[in-house]
Structures are given as C-alpha cells and as structure tokens.
C-alpha cells in the first residue's frame, strides 16, 4: 500500500502578513504627506450607467449560472473517478495529501477580502478620496468577484478531477474522503486563489489611485500579491487543490480584475456592453 504524505502547514500564517499590510496602509498616508506627494484629483476610473447596469447584470447572471451548476454536482461512480496516472504529470505527486491545519489557515486567510475596502475607507477618512471614488471601486470589486466566482463554480461543476485528498489511503485524509460531498470531485480550479488575486489587484490599484505614492504602492503590491501566493500555497498544502488549480485560479482572478478595471478607465468609455433576453453584445463608438 502506498504511503500517504501528510503536510503540516507552516506556523507562519496569513494573519501576521495581514497585520503588516494594515499597519503599512494606515501609516503610509502620513509618510505620503511628509514626502509631499500631491493627489491628482482627476479620477482614472468612472462609471457609465448603461454599461454598468448591463455589466452588473451579466456578472450576477454569470455567478447565478455558476452557482446553479455547482449545486447540480453529484458524487460520481468510482469508475468515473480519474486514476492518479490520469492527472497532469506535475500534479500527480500531490494526490493523497491532506492537512487540516493548512485548510483552516487558508480559510482564515479570507479575512483579506476586506483589505481593498479598508484602504478605501482610510483614504476617504483622511481626505485622499471621495465618496464617489469609493463607490466606483466598490462596484468594480463586486463585479470582479461575481464574475470570477461564477466562472470558478462553472468549471468546478465539470468535475474534471477530484480534490487531492480524495486519493488519500489513510489518516485524516482518508476519513475526509469517505465523507466527501459532490463538490470534492471538482477541484479545477481554485476559487480561494482566484478570489485572493482579485483582492490583491484591487488592494494595489485602490491604494495607487487614492494615495498616489509610487514608492509605497510597490510595497503594497508586493505584500498583496505575496499574500495571494501564500493563500494558493496553503490550498495545495491542505490537499484541496493541485498546482494547476492554483495557477489557473491566479490567472483568472488577475485577468478578470484587470479586465474590469480597464473597462472603467476614462479613455475606454467608448463602448457599451449590453444584454437583453436572448442576445448580448458590445457597441463601440469611434
């Protein structure tokens, strides 16, 4: 019988990083003032009523469809579960792994979801932002989360391959596999990682737009994306995902977020996304 490899998650979790990031954001506005960085009152991002109504509706529809498909998942018969050798070559060695500690730590990491809103709130309180700007970023963040969540759940409902711990042959992983529900058989791709990189993008961009400090922005970017990377690593250590799941999750979260941001830039307001019953499209003005 093959030996089951169990990972013990590192003791350094996401909370110390979260504290460091929060402290840095809170104090940097004072340093920014002392370094005399001027705020540019010309907002980079704007809302377009017609476009954003359609975009938000499409995001809600995407999330709704993904959620519906997710709840239609069923535990497949054993004959339909891919063998370890059928997994991608670089993912095979992770099959059978499980760590309850890493799983818990990755769930605790979801507190990072408030980071962009915290940055916006601090900027608003210190006079570096406006209520309008806070609303614009909040809506873009919600749109991004809805899109990436819907895409993630739709892919997971395809049940391309099960979570790593499903292959566990002993220990806590085996016990968890025996009680696994249908969702455990759709590992691709990592929703936690996708969401973490969405938060990293908005943390960086919201800070950059409101504090206008290039030096500090680079530090915030490094911290935010490092935290997102830690979240992905914990999902692998927990036996919840394979490296492929995490990499694709990072790409989807990053791509969707930057896509939403680009669509709201002032210079890109020459199109309108529209959705009506039975049809969807984009109108572009030249």
Spans of at least 5 consecutive residues whose pLDDT stays below 50 are 1-20, 23-40, 274-279
Largest sheet: 2 strands, antiparallel
Averaging pLDDT over every residue, what do you get? 83
Along the chain, the helix and strand elements come as HHHHHHHHHEE
By DSSP (H or I, 4+ residues per run), the number of helices equals 9
Q: State the shape.
A: elongated
Spatial order of strands in the largest sheet: 1-2
DSSP E strands, number: 2
Rg result: 21 Å
What does this structure look like?
- The structure is a single chain.
- With 286 residues, this protein is mainly alpha-helical.
- Helices cover 57% and strands 4% of the residues.
- It has helices at 14-34, 49-70, 100-108, 115-125, 131-156, 171-178, 191-211, 214-237, 243-263, and strands spanning 271-276, 279-284.
Offer a quick outline of the entry.
The chain is 57% helix and 4% strand. The chain has 286 residues and is mainly α. A hairpin with a 2-residue loop joins strand 1 (271-276) and strand 2 (279-284).
Walk me through the topology:
Elements: H1 14-34, H2 49-70, H3 100-108, H4 115-125, H5 131-156, H6 171-178, H7 191-211, H8 214-237, H9 243-263, E1 271-276, E2 279-284
Antiparallel strand pairs: 1-2
Helix pairs in contact: 1-4, 1-8, 2-5, 3-8, 4-5, 4-7, 5-7, 5-9, 7-8, 7-9, 8-9
Based on the model shown, name its key terms:
2 strands, single chain, about 55% helix, two-stranded antiparallel sheet, disordered N terminus, about 5% strand, 9 helices, mainly alpha, about 290 residues
């Amino acid at each position: 019988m093959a030996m089951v490899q169990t990972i013990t998650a590192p003791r350094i979790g996401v909370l110390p990083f979260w504290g460091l990031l929060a402290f840095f954001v809170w104090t940097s506005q004072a340093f920014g003032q002392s370094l005399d960085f001027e705020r540019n009152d010309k907002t980079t991002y704007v809302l377009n009523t017609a476009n954003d109504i359609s975009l938000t509706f499409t995001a809600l529809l995407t999330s709704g469809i993904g959620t519906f498909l997710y709840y239609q998942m069923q535990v497949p018969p054993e004959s339909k579960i891919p063998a370890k050798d059928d997994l991608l070559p670089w993912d095979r060695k992770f099959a059978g792994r499980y760590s309850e500690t890493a799983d818990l730590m990755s769930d605790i990491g979801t507190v990072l979801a408030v980071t962009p809103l915290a940055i916006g709130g601090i900027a608003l309180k210190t006079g570096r932002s406006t209520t309008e700007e806070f609303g614009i970023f909040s809506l873009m963040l919600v749109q991004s989360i809805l899109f990436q969540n819907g895409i993630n759940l739709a892919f997971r409902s395809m049940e391309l391959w099960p979570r790593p711990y499903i292959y566990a042959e002993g220990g806590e992983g085996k016990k968890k596999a025996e009680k696994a529900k249908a969702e455990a058989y759709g590992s691709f791709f990592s929703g936690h990682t996708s969401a973490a990189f969405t938060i990293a993008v908005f943390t960086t961009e919201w800070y950059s737009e409101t504090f206008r400090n290039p030096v500090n922005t680079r530090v915030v970017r490094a911290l935010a994306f490092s935290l997102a990377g830690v979240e992905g690593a914990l999902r692998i250590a927990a036996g919840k995902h394979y490296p492929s799941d995490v990499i694709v999750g990072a790409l989807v979260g990053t791509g969707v977020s930057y896509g939403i941001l680009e669509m709201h830039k002032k210079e890109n307001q020459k199109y309108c996304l529209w959705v009506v019953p039975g049809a969807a499209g984009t109108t572009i003005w030249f």
